[in-house]
UniProtKB/TrEMBL annotation:
Keywords linked to the UniProt accession: NADP, One-carbon metabolism, Oxidoreductase
Family annotation (InterPro entries): DHFR, DHFR-like_dom_sf, DHFR_CS, DHFR_dom
A Pfam family of this chain: DHFR_1
Associated pathway: Cofactor biosynthesis; tetrahydrofolate biosynthesis; 5,6,7,8-tetrahydrofolate from 7,8-dihydrofolate: step 1/1
Keyword NADP attached: yes
Enzyme Commission identifier(s): 1.5.1.3
Name of the protein this chain belongs to: Dihydrofolate reductase
Domain DHFR, residue spans: 2-165
Family of the protein in this entry: Belongs to the dihydrofolate reductase family.
Organism field: Rhizosphaericola mali
A GO molecular-function annotation: dihydrofolate reductase activity
GO BP, sorted A to Z: dihydrofolate metabolic process; folic acid metabolic process; one-carbon metabolic process; tetrahydrofolate biosynthetic process
Record's GO cellular component terms: cytosol
Lineage: Bacteria, Pseudomonadati, Bacteroidota, Chitinophagia, Chitinophagales
Length: 166
């Protein structure tokens, strides 16, 4: 099973502020949808709740990672460990599992993933409250990077980066 983190983070690794992303990148949302559509996604409870509508992401097999064994959400499978999610995903013949946040989930699972799909938002957010861990270049290699300017649908310049574990 290939484990892939998909995340958008600023130059100072901010991924959130007050339960939201402090930017608006239409292209990143489309990229996220294209990469994860039809695939299993794993997220923490706060990330699931941040969607606002209390429903799982459509077109994907939704896992919620939680220590709370009594937690239940319609349309999502609550798991208590990454291994549980991998087991179920393999049973359903998936070859990849996308980890979509939030900050604590990224921090816990980064040492176990094979690849990071990072949308680097080229700005600094001083008042962020949720962060993505720093990628140690001794352990990770930048495989590709595509740069894009700010435009009418994207509030900031950004890059789509693919990092692979060495």
């Amino acid at each position: 099973m290939e484990l892939i983190i998909i995340v958008a983070a600023t130059e100072n690794n901010v991924i959130g502020r007050n339960g939201d992303m402090p930017w608006s990148l239409s292209s990143d949302l489309r990229y996220f949808k294209n990469m994860t559509w039809g695939m299993p996604v794993l997220m923490g409870t706060n990330t699931f709740k941040s969607f606002g509508h209390g429903k799982p992401l459509p077109g994907r097999f939704n896992f919620i990672l939680s220590r709370n064994k009594d937690l239940a959400f319609d349309g999502a499978v609550v798991v208590n460990s990454l291994d549980d999610a991998i087991f179920i995903a393999k049973e359903k013949n998936y070859k990849q599992l996308y980890i979509i946040g939030g900050g604590e989930i990224y921090k816990q699972l980064l040492p176990k993933v094979d690849k990071v799909l990072l949308t680097r938002v080229h700005k600094v957010v001083e008042d962020g409250d949720t962060f993505f861990p720093e990628l140690d270049e001794k352990k990770w290699v930048l495989e590709s990077s595509q740069d894009f300017p700010k435009d009418e649908k994207n509030t900031d310049p950004y890059s789509f980066q693919v990092w692979k574990r060495k």
